[in-house]
Automatic annotation (TrEMBL):
<feature type="binding site">
    <location>
        <position position="94"/>
    </location>
    <ligand>
        <name>UDP-N-acetyl-alpha-D-glucosamine</name>
    </ligand>
</feature>
<feature type="active site" description="Proton donor">
    <location>
        <position position="118"/>
    </location>
</feature>
<feature type="binding site">
    <location>
        <position position="307"/>
    </location>
    <ligand>
        <name>UDP-N-acetyl-alpha-D-glucosamine</name>
    </ligand>
</feature>
<keyword id="KW-0133">Cell shape</keyword>
<keyword id="KW-0573">Peptidoglycan synthesis</keyword>
<feature type="domain" description="Enolpyruvate transferase">
    <location>
        <begin position="6"/>
        <end position="407"/>
    </location>
</feature>
<dbReference type="InterPro" id="IPR005750">
    <property type="entry name" value="UDP_GlcNAc_COvinyl_MurA"/>
</dbReference>
<keyword id="KW-0132">Cell division</keyword>
<comment type="function">
    <text>Cell wall formation. Adds enolpyruvyl to UDP-N-acetylglucosamine.</text>
</comment>
<dbReference type="InterPro" id="IPR013792">
    <property type="entry name" value="RNA3'P_cycl/enolpyr_Trfase_a/b"/>
</dbReference>
<dbReference type="InterPro" id="IPR050068">
    <property type="entry name" value="MurA_subfamily"/>
</dbReference>
<dbReference type="InterPro" id="IPR001986">
    <property type="entry name" value="Enolpyruvate_Tfrase_dom"/>
</dbReference>
<dbReference type="InterPro" id="IPR036968">
    <property type="entry name" value="Enolpyruvate_Tfrase_sf"/>
</dbReference>
<protein>
    <recommendedName>
        <fullName>UDP-N-acetylglucosamine 1-carboxyvinyltransferase</fullName>
        <ecNumber>2.5.1.7</ecNumber>
    </recommendedName>
</protein>
<comment type="similarity">
    <text>Belongs to the EPSP synthase family. MurA subfamily.</text>
</comment>
<keyword id="KW-0961">Cell wall biogenesis/degradation</keyword>
<comment type="pathway">
    <text>Cell wall biogenesis; peptidoglycan biosynthesis.</text>
</comment>
Length: 420
């Protein structure tokens, strides 16, 4: 078992490079199932979630090669077998459920166990299944499994009750080779949706409107060979380092940003008092000015991302005044509150609302990463806490951040991983 130890008090300075987006890479890896050819995905971060999908594809007898030096992930699904994937791998990560759409498109059937992931909310797959039914899929479920099959996918109109990212991605991939036209209404608008469409189109798919709430997919008979593909930068990792500059009252440069993708975070952090200078993919963050309390309400993109809520709570816990955070996306996404309170934060919960009254100082102690983004929040809090912050259950952090301690230490922080 490993833990991360953070010694607080250091100012940050210098530059940090942002990795390719985890939430973009995962569906793109799965989408290679659609095309029985060798495909290269560039600059892939070596994350726990990536390794789970790699092992899942290998279990299905695909060829997968990964270069630690370049980050090139070379996938060949030409020998993909129509077999039931490992129950253990599916339960380790929710994104593994995304194989259903491509498997239906390629084989017309897929049996899979219910997926797992961070325990931040119910995140049911009913939206996926309702959408599949609209495309002509028969579904049976029971005893922890879902069995899907079709005589042939046919285009249809799908309205999502909620703009679910996973359901949008799964339906997009299923519809790529379906007969006719599929329209997804109230689709998720996250940048990662646009990036998946960009990848599918690079293989000859016909996907229009991704990122704008109404996606039209015209089915094609087969996909074609594609050049190597580089996904977008990770806007949540970038947001985490922006908050790091703000919470330590430092100036840093972040390389690998997309201003449009980060706009919800930039706008809210500007209200807090953070200054930005953006030149292309380079961002100078100045967190040295006074901070002000703000109210935040998490919403699907282009609203404020729920994946940045824990990090912002860590910052606001040290911001003079009272801030209100309303979590509308995941019902269990306040599990990190207890850990921040252990460090001296003054936070009260009322249902899906957190009332954060800023304190002058946090104190390092033993805390745990209750989920992926909560783990990032613990590191941020530890950067400014008195003494040492010892973080356990860091496997959650490794699901979404690559070499996080190295990146923080390159900026002058004191963050170390130990084995116990």
């Amino acid at each position: 078992m490993e833990k991360i130890i953070v010694k607080g008090g250091n100012k940050l300075q210098g530059e940090v490079d942002i990795s390719i987006a985890k939430n973009s890479v995962l569906p793109i890896i799965v989408a290679t199932i659609l095309n029985p050819r060798k495909i290269t995905i560039k600059k892939v971060p070596l994350l726990e979630d990536v390794l789970v999908l790699v092992n899942l594809l290998r279990e299905l007898e695909c060829s997968v090669e990964f270069s630690d030096i370049t980050g090139d992930l070379i996938i060949d699904t030409s020998n993909l077998k129509e077999i039931e994937p490992s129950n253990d791998l599916i339960k380790r990560m929710r994104a593994s459920f995304l194989i259903v759409g491509p498997m239906l498109a390629r084989f017309g059937r897929c049996k899979i166990s219910m997926p797992g992931g961070c325990n931040i909310g119910s995140r049911p797959v009913d939206l996926h299944l309702k959408g599949f039914k609209k495309l002509g899929v028969d579904i049976e479920s029971g005893h922890g499994y879902i069995n899907t099959k079709t005589e042939g996918l046919k285009g249809g109109r799908v309205y999502l009750d909620f703009p679910s990212v996973g359901a949008t991605e799964n339906l997009m991939m299923a519809a790529v080779c379906a007969e006719g036209v599929t329209i997804i209404e109230n689709a998720a608008e996250e940048p990662e949706i646009w990036d998946l469409a960009r990848f599918l189109n690079s293989m000859g798919a016909k996907v229009e409107g991704a990122g704008y709430g109404r996606i039209t997919i015209t089915g094609v008979k087969e996909l074609k060979e594609t050049e190597s593909f580089t996904p977008i930068y990770d806007r949540i990792e970038a947001g985490t380092f922006i908050v790091a500059a703000a919470i330590t009252k430092s100036k840093i440069t972040i390389n690998g940003v997309n201003e449009e993708h980060l706009m919800p975070c930039i706008e809210k952090l500007t209200e807090v008092g953070v200054k930005f200078k953006i030149d292309g993919e380079k961002m100078l963050v100045d967190g040295t000015e006074d901070r002000f309390p703000v109210d935040i309400k998490t919403l699907p993109y282009p609203g404020f991302p729920t994946d940045m809520q824990p990090q912002m709570m860590a910052l606001l816990s040290l911001t003079n005044g009272v801030s209100i955070i309303t979590e509308t996306v995941f019902e269990n996404r306040f599990m990190h509150v207890g850990e921040l309170v252990r460090m001296g934060a003054n936070i009260k919960i009322d249902g899906r609302i957190a009332i954060v009254e800023g304190v002058k100082q946090l104190t390092g102690c033993e805390v745990k990463a209750t989920d992926l983004r909560a783990g990032a929040a613990m590191i941020l809090a530890g950067l400014v806490a008195n003494g040492e912050t010892i973080i356990s259950e860091i496997h959650h952090i490794d699901r979404g951040y690559t070499r996080i301690e190295d990146k923080f230490n390159s900026l002058g922080a004191n963050v170390h991983r130990i084995k116990i």
